[in-house]
Design a protein that fits this description.
binds zinc ion; 20% strand; TIM Barrel; alpha/beta; 8-stranded parallel beta barrel; 7 helices; binds D-xylitol-5-phosphate
Amino acid sequence: MQATIWASLLTCDVGRLADQVAELEASGFVAGLHVDVMDGRFVPNLAFGPQSVEALRSRTKLPIEVHLMVESPAHLLPVFHAAGAGRLIVHAEACPQLHRDLTSIRKLGAQAGVALNPGTPVDAARCVLEDLDELLLMGVNPGYGGQAFIGAVEQKIADARRMIDRAGTGTHINVDGGVKAGNAQRLASLGADRLVVGSALFEPPSIAGCAAIFHNLLSPDAPHEVTA
Ligand code: DX5
Ligand code: ZN
């Protein structure tokens, strides 16, 4: 199974956001945009709101998933869907009524995702798999781009793959945080079929060049041991 790349805009050059998104789209190597929303409470940082999603929606045809790192996100679900997000991802740790929130997302006509912090076991998603289009496994503690991948999450990817295959729900496994050229193949081989890539896309030589590196690494005919 070939993993696709979802570009996190958290560490982009916000002053050149439109140009950078155009470059991501033109590369042809990015399946969609991953927009991080932070409330300063669930995570210590603040990031993107619905206005940004609306602006992105009008400038790109790429699908947009919104990663809601906010406490009690229920009231924001229709807002971000109306702004143009096709998939809404809530944190299990922020949703005491997780099943209700996922049902609300699907009722809106959006795809539903659940994110799990590194310290939250995969089991937290077991009872809602039927309601889940994407399981987003955090490779870092959320809040900032550019952090190092936490190795213990590797086992969670393998566990999640086994759990989802057994359940037969077809839920996608995405990994977010600390995804680099040096670990992308391994994360895919453990069972991730989507990878969120943030800071590693906004490095020299260019966005298109970085996206191509990931695309080549994740192609079925890629050599097994590639580092960059
Ligand atoms: C972290 C965010 C991630 C982040 C990924 O809280 O949810 O989407 O932007 O950035 P990198 O790839 O730099 O770890
Ligand atoms: Zn994210």
